[in-house]
Amino acid sequence: MPLKTLEDLFIHELSDIYSAEKQLTKALPKLARAATNPELAAAFESHLEETQHQVERIDQVVEATGVKLKRMKCLAMEGLVEEGKEVMEAIEKGPVLDAALIAAAQKVEHYEIAGYGTLLALGRQLKFDRIETLLQETLKEEKAADQKLTQLAEGGANQAAAGAG
């Protein structure tokens, strides 16, 4: 179905991020199991809970706007999840894998930050005022997750990986 209006684009982007979040709820437990750094595993587990709340918030956005999500698969998230799987298969468990998992997770966070930023801008333009707080909350969580991953990398995970091997 062609996108002809800004609302069509909003629906497309919302459907895309919904699919992305659903895929992420399946991927995060695998990342947590693959991590050897306990703080990293805990961060993945914590973000899983957050992601489940983000899916609920998307449901609230749908309800508040009256739009209907399209059934689609977020190909970008599918690719990012696949990259994460490849990393887990290619690198043995340990500090180097932890560093690679952080890198893979940050790619995901940056994708989500872009998606929610776009939805906020489109929602403002469409005067969907009631959803701004919901989208802002999720965007804030995604940025915080990215920051947490940076802290883990710079706080020892990358140093441990540098000493491995």
TrEMBL record:
Q: Which InterPro entries match?
A: DUF892_YciF-like, Ferritin-like, Ferritin-like_SF, YciF
Q: Its domain of life? A: Bacteria
Q: Where does the secretion signal sit in this chain?
A: none
Name the UniProt record assigns to this protein = Ferritin-like metal-binding protein YciE
- Which species is this record about? Azoarcus indigens
